[in-house]
Specification:
binds 6-O-alpha-D-glucopyranosyl-D-fructose, 17 helices, alpha/beta, 526 residues, binds calcium ion
């Protein structure tokens, strides 16, 4: 088995992780200073969100130079040190690879916009007229420079690269080689199934993402990934995980099929859509059964899943699928139990291991995320009443995940002014307190990670669903003669339920046997 199959991934959003110099922005020396903490937690791989030079219109996902570290985060020397220190502790690092677009501040784009004859013009997509496509952050996907428009599926400062230009493919190979030679373990590839555009014709009208059929899961997209694997990745023993947009299990499988040799693992979103937070507009009451069905569907469809409940784009899982108040600890531990007992590679997002909650923003001025402000503009145009719009934005904004990591109740994240408002609940939700309390969410994660690593059935075992009722999710993992049954009450209500055997793992200190308390989760050896 490969490390990425046995191991646990921990995602760091560097801006919000730990500030070392008091400027209010998390940085690489900050990460280095907490490597021992990550080792203590028991993780194996860090996924580092972008640290490259960037004007921060999309906080790093708009890359201005793939070979430079954003000075806010430190220097290339700091980055080398991080890789070395992490490797010394047996922790590998994967970096974000954003190749669908660059920042419009990238020098390629600065050249390209000089005119049609510029050798870099063809690095991007240009048209005389807009087409009818709509983008991921809402609105049109075309922006005018001179007498032509360039394509941007995301923010207008994120210009889509033209991957039908072999020079661009070569640039990507060089970038990957540069970082792999520095000793990183691989890449998390941003929006990897939409990088190749078949045509720039008008698309079929859709409620969202008109034009998608021209660039979603194209044949050439697969060929490009195969080429990157053959020409670059195969020279190393790396790990690649691709973030996708709107994939079916079959489309996800096509990207990770060992025969086709593209990616190792795929990040899919179906289980993040069960409360419709991802489409931003409509609130749908969260029903645990929908989550169970989505998880089960993907467990059954793919040989190996990317397991996650959080990342830097998603509101916090306790706030969405658990309880922020009376049962925060229990629900966070219940979600941890599922995360660490399904089949696949678990991804923990910074702060999840202490049960951090959504941001509780009170004004749009407190929000830095460009997506939120774009949607706000569209919402205003659509004449959505302000209070409704604001409520929706506060609930769904990606900044919910990006509030600074709560190290302690005071200056743990920064001694200065944090770039994004800290959550007031850092007074009682923080790493320091959690470390001192053996029953904290943090210690629960640590113990469960140890248990998973020591239990082959939880890593290699088959997955079998036993039942999915309104509130209770039951499944089994078996390997050879060992079988573990996971029973999770995913609701905040106590449920009558007979359990005949004492659990080997549980998120409550006592065991009842005749009922499952709110968010109670048990692992039983059968
Ligand atoms: O974040 C989303 C929903 O709120 C998604 O639509 C998201 O935009 C999509 O999954 C792509 O995300 C990735 O690429 C974006 C970047 O803004 C995200 O942070 C990144 O995870 C563009 O690079
Ligand atoms: Ca800093």
């Amino acid at each position: 088995m490969k490390l990425w199959q046995k191991g646990i991934v921990y995602q760091i959003y560097p801006r919000s992780f730990k500030d070392s110099n008091g400027d209010g922005i998390g940085d690489i020396p900050g990460i280095i200073s907490e490597l021992d903490y990550l080792k203590f937690l028991g993780i194996d791989i860090i996924w580092l969100s972008p640290v490259y030079l960037s004007p921060n219109n999309d906080f790093g996902y708009d890359v201005a130079d793939y070979y430079q570290i954003n000075p806010e985060f430190g220097t290339m020397h700091d980055m080398d040190l991080l890789i070395r220190r992490a490797n010394q502790l047996g922790i590998k690092i994967i970096m974000d690879l954003v190749i669908n677009h660059t920042s419009t501040e990238h020098w390629w784009f600065k050249e390209a916009k000089k005119g049609k004859d510029n050798p870099y013009r063809d690095y991007y997509h240009w048209r005389d007229k807009k087409n009818n496509w709509s983008g991921f952050f809402g609105g049109t996907t075309w922006e005018k420079v001179g007498d032509q428009y360039y394509l941007h599926l995301f923010d207008k400062t994120q210009a889509d690269l033209n991957l039908s230009n072999p020079k661009v493919i070569q640039e990507i190979k060089d970038i990957m080689t540069f970082w792999l030679d520095k000793g990183i373990y691989g890449f998390r590839c941003d929006v990897i199934n939409i990088i190749y555009k078949n045509s720039l014709k008008n698309g079929q009208r859709r409620l969202v993402l008109t034009g998608l059929e021209h660039y979603h899961s194209t044949k050439r997209n697969h060929e490009i990934l195969q080429e990157l694997r053959r020409d670059v990745l195969d020279n190393y023993d790396p790990f690649t995980v691709g973030e996708t947009v709107l994939v079916t299990p079959q489309q996800a499988y096509d990207l990770m099929d060992p025969e086709r040799k593209e990616l190792d693992l795929v990040i899919a979103f179906e289980h993040m859509d069960v409360d419709h937070i991802n489409n931003k507009w409509f609130k749908v009451k969260y029903k645990p059964q929908k989550m169970m069905e989505a998880l089960t569907k993907w467990q059954e469809a793919l040989p190996w899943n990317c397991l996650y409940f959080e990342n830097h784009d998603q509101p916090r899982s306790v706030s969405r699928f658990g309880s922020e108040t009376s049962y925060r600890e229990e629900s966070a531990k219940m979600l941890a139990t599922i995360l660490l007992t399904l089949r696949g590679t678990p991804f923990i997002y910074q702060g999840q291991e202490i049960g951090m909650t959504n941001g509780h923003f009170k004004s749009l001025d407190e929000i830095m995320d460009t997506e939120t402000h774009n949607i706000n503009k569209i919402g205003k145009k659509l004449l959505i009443p302000r209070p409704i719009l604001r409520k929706m934005l506060f609930r769904t904004t990606r900044d919910n995940a990006r509030t600074p990591m709560q190290w302690d109740d005071s200056t743990g994240f920064t001694t200065g002014q944090p770039w994004l408002k800290e959550n007031d609940n850092k007074s009682y939700i923080n790493v320091e307190l959690a470390s001192e309390d053996p029953n904290s969410i943090l210690h629960f994660y640590k113990r469960l990670i140890e248990f998973r690593k020591a239990t082959p059935a939880l890593i290699k075992g088959d997955f079998k669903v036993i039942s999915m009722t309104k509130d209770i999710y039951i499944y089994e993992r078996s390997y050879k003669d060992k079988t573990f049954r996971i029973i999770a009450n995913m609701s905040g209500k106590e449920k009558k339920f007979q359990v005949y055997k004492k659990p080997v793992f549980s998120n409550y200190l006592t065991f009842l046997g005749y009922s499952l308390r709110p968010y109670e989760a048990l692992i039983i050896e059968v």
